Amino acid sequence: MKIWKRPSHYLGETWNEYYVFLTVNRDSDCLERSNYECAIKEISDKWERVEKDYENGVYGYLPYDDLPYQEVKENHFLCGWVGWIAIHKDCKPLVELAETLEKRLEDYPILNEEHYSQLENDEAYSYWESCNTSDRIAMCVKHHVSIFASRRDEMPDTNSGELITN
Known about the structure:
Layout: E1 2-3, E2 18-25, H1 30-55, E3 69-76, E4 80-88, H2 92-107, H3 113-130, H4 133-142
Antiparallel strand pairs: 1-2, 2-4, 3-4
């Protein structure tokens, strides 16, 4: 992780004492979004466990009243928006957790297999439901599924078990 640095031509809020951890944007794929959502959940859960320790001075005191992490969303002229997790440099338990999550992602690209699989399935089913019949027929033909399955609202199973996608 790196400490946030003000980009040239940047007009937004400053985050000088925060680390930049995991980013997403409008065009992020299912895996990036899943990892981001799981990371923010783990960070939030960790903060709930250590917040009382900070209030009691176990780790020292944080120099601000807000949460030591933020979900930052900023507009971007190329990709619409960028989201990222800001973690204050003085909150050692959250910095250590983020470093651990980063290391896990270096070893294996998925933080939570179950969450990723569910998100992937939900998106595939949502896409199927939004398609018209001719698009569904084309997907059925591509995946060697009976074209009559295109009439149903439920996405059909393929022989290989993969999701039907465009």
